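From the shared-data thread, chain only:
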Amino acid sequence: VDHRLFKPRSKEKARKRLCLSGSFIILTVRRLVYKNGINFLIDAFVKFNKENQDSKLIIVGKGPDKSGIESIVKRKGLNNSVILTGFVPDDILPFYYNASDVFVLPSVPGEGFPLTVLEAFASGIPVITTKCGGVIEIVDNEINGFVVPPFSSERIYEKLKLLHKNFRMCKELGFNGRKLIEKSFTWDFHIKKLLNIYKELIK
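Structure, as tokens:
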């Protein structure tokens, strides 16, 4: 991940730039297809939003299921609380991470290793992810985020509630995520690693 593009910035300035407001902003960046589990995140948000009516859910991305997701949002009366941005260019995307309090990856089985988790960590925000794909290798419970079972909107809700109540935990998990990126997931790190492999091979 480009840790110079995706980095911690002022939450207030990012929200002002994007014209966003809310007491607690939840972000997901996904292609809008069934396997990416957006419906489970929306179900979790329904319950969370009832208790925190000034909260917002931002869904960044496009895909064949967009109209279906829009219908779900409308049916559940969340038009004022859920924002579907569609495609967001790379020069603007970092500000969505910076404006948010938590990133959620609600995938169902079939996930690989999504770059979006690395972008969230690089931006200094905690991650809630389901136990799917390679992402579970880097998300450590209560260290930089939480891993929950797939298909469980209730467990996503529980972790959202926990982070909302504990600003200090939110900040600490985000800090640890950024440190992980700086240690092992920058372009510089992987270039050096690749060069070392080449050097070993040509000896």
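The helical segments are 11-18, 38-51, 66-75, 93-99, 115-122, 153-165, 167-184, 187-201.
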